[in-house]
Write a structure and sequence with these properties.
transmembrane; mainly alpha; CSR-E3_Ligase_Protein; about 5% strand; DC_STAMP-like; two-stranded antiparallel sheet; Dendritic cell-specific transmembrane protein-like domain-containing protein; 12 helices
Length: about 475
């Protein structure tokens, strides 16, 4: 019980401190030196957070050294703190930028993590598999060159020696003379040019792989630099445009029933003037009561707009993952089919026909033959590529990233409400004018709807014959009580 009391007192104390900080930050009503120091500390904390984002962009996106990024960040923080202390508009602008930047930076960080995962696992795996396939083809060509230098020429040499021995045996013990033959054969294949071409092909393969990797790294570096810079610039411009339109245009995005509007409507009720709360069914569909958790049509549009970059990135990831899987499958099927090919048998045979003639007439005939066939494998087993698939390694981090992105999309629907509420806290006079305009607009629409309804009733009544000739088209009613 005592622990619960302590936690309750601590929660109440934190709630009081937060409300005090929130009230000082959104107004200029500092009365004591404690409130002044508290506001100064709050402005310093806000500027420090913004400076941290600036340091992250300079250090990780622009690859600035610490000798450059740290002084720039310190100067930015020191300059922004007094500006936020003395200017209410700068405080509002900084808070809105901080909220939007937090959402945008988290989204950008998650998208960067997902893209890095796809590049590290899938794209590099695709390049590695293609490189293995090309190396397998070059290995097979080298082995075929070795087979050409050994197997066919060796068989041809054996065949020629066999022919020489057969011829030599025909002249043994020949009475008119002697026959001597020395078959010393040397085989030579000029394959130096072929080896040069193989070496050039391997060098071209390595250069292509290095060029592709360098291009991938360059595009990734350019994306890391341009994406945060353009995103931050676009974010600052949109925030400045939002504040300008919020202060100058009462019609701009004025569809929220805020605390200021409810106070104004209650004041109208106390003064005996027309009030609009509670809203009817059609008005509830058009106007949003803040704070509201249930997404409306406009919030769904904001969520869709926020999720468009996420959707495009997911499509890009899916394309590269599918390409990686497709190339892996093609190489596996190709390796399997090449491994199943039977060696090619090359039939090489020779036949020697001997005949003995006496006075031009054949006396004896003898036929001899030799088989010098050989087999050649179309693709060497050891040169078959063995691809790899890193699909599971990339899907696990991508699943975590997508889960966080879905949560971020759901939170983005509340960003518009938070901006409106925060802007009204910083500019209460503008909020009252916007509330009065929206109140008058709702009343005017209600009066117009009622007038159109009465006009429709009059038109309906005017086309009825009983309205013009009541005696002729009078509807007789039966009085059941009289009966």
């Amino acid at each position: 019980m005592m622990i619960q009391t302590i936690f309750y007192q601590l929660a109440e104390k934190l709630r009081w401190v937060w409300s005090k900080i929130y009230g000082l930050y959104t107004t200029n009503t500092t009365k004591s030196w404690k409130e002044t120091h508290l506001l100064l500390l709050t402005c310093f904390t806000t500027s420090l957070i913004l400076s941290t984002f600036l340091f992250i962009i300079l250090h990780f996106s622009f690859k600035c050294v610490q000798e450059v990024s740290v002084p720039l960040t310190c100067v930015f923080c020191i300059s922004l703190t007094p500006a936020m202390y003395f200017s209410e508009r700068i405080r509002c602008f900084g808070a809105l930028v901080l909220i939007s930047m937090g959402m945008k930076q988290v989204k950008g960080l998650l998208l960067t993590l997902g893209t890095s995962s796809v590049i590290f696992f899938n794209i590099q795996n695709t390049l590695q598999n293609m490189r293995l396939l090309a190396k397998g083809l070059l290995c097979n060509l080298e082995e075929k060159l070795l087979d050409i230098n050994t197997e066919p020429l060796g068989n041809y040499i054996k065949m020629l020696r066999w022919v020489g021995n057969q011829l030599k045996s025909c002249f043994i013990n020949f009475p008119l003379g002697t026959y001597h033959a020395d078959f010393t054969l040397k085989a030579k294949v000029d394959s130096e040019l072929f080896k040069v071409h193989l070496s050039e092909a391997e060098q071209a393969l390595n250069q292509t792989a290095q060029s592709v990797l360098a291009l991938t790294n360059a595009l990734s570096s350019i994306g890391k630099i341009l994406s945060p810079t353009l995103g931050l610039l676009f974010l600052v411009l949109l925030t400045a445009l939002y504040l300008k339109r919020f202060n100058l245009d009462e019609k701009y995005n004025n569809i929220y029933i805020t605390k200021t509007f409810r106070s104004f409507d209650e004041q109208q009720r106390e003064n005996g003037k027309p009030c609009v709360l509670p809203l009817n069914k059609s008005e509830s569909e058009h106007y949003i009561v803040t704070p509201s958790i249930r997404p409306t049509g406009r919030q769904w549009k904001a969520m869709l707009k926020f999720s468009i970059p996420i959707f495009t990135h997911c499509l890009t990831w899916l394309v590269f993952i599918s390409l990686d899987g497709l190339i892996y499958w093609l190489i596996v099927v190709l390796s399997k089919r090449l491994g199943e090919l039977e060696p090619l048998r090359v039939p090489v045979g020779i036949k020697l026909q001997e005949a003995t003639l006496f006075l031009g007439l054949p006396v004896a005939e003898n036929a001899k033959g030799g088989n010098f066939s050989y087999t050649v494998s179309l693709f060497e087993k050891k040169c078959l590529p063995e691809p790899e698939l890193w699909l599971y390694q990339s899907l696990v981090p991508l699943s975590v990233v997508l889960a966080f992105l879905v949560v971020l999309i759901l939170l983005s629907s509340q960003m518009v409400q938070l901006r409106v509420v925060l802007s009204e806290q910083f500019f209460p006079d503008v909020a009252k004018k916007r509330a009065a305009y929206l109140h008058e607009k709702i009343l005017r629409k209600r009066c117009k709807t009622e007038a159109e309804k009465h006009e429709g009733d009059l038109k309906t009544l005017a086309i009825q014959p009983s309205f013009w000739c009541p005696l002729l088209f009078h509807k007789h009613r039966t009085n059941l009580d009289a009966v």
